[in-house]
Amino acid sequence: MSEDKIVSERKPLLTARQVGVAAAFGGIALALVLAGVTIPIPGTPVVTDPREIFTTIGASLTGPIGGIVIGILAGIAEPGIPLASLLAHIIGGIYCGYVYKHFVWKSNENRVVYLVKWAVQVLGYYFVIVVPLFVVGLMMFYPDPEYGGFLGFLVALEAGAAPEAIITTIVTTIIMGALPERYRRPLW
Hints:
The chain is mostly helical. It has helices at 16-34, 51-75, 82-104, 111-141, 150-178, 181-184, and strands spanning 39-40, 47-48. Helix 3 runs antiparallel to helix 4 (111-141) and helix 4 (111-141) runs antiparallel to helix 5.
């Protein structure tokens, strides 16, 4: 009599490829912050930068765990306000990983629908996740009477972030549209 072994094939939580991709994309985001590549948002004490191009694409490809790694690297060196940036970027990375695999990637066969969903994901990343959590982080970890009320500060930052969000959406949509399918496939 032979014993049948039940073998469970679990995927690792984070593969070497995911680690490499997350480290590369997060490293570029960190390098941009450390290099001081910033643009001030008028009327607020906040600056913006192009790191979100690498954060959104990298976290989308590497999934929630890769998104956490990228979020840490993207937010850790934010001048003067790292805790607010970490909160926003880590949750944003998790969001990108889940939304990309379970919403955007499912439309991969139809390129137009896929790219429209990608654009919606990036805009959601900015206006629903990162900017609101950044405001929460600023008010929680770095309270300042100059911020005013939550809603007023949120509106000011979302208005200030709109140009970056639009540019990032356009640039990343072009990149994702140009990449062959094997490079757009989620790694988790």
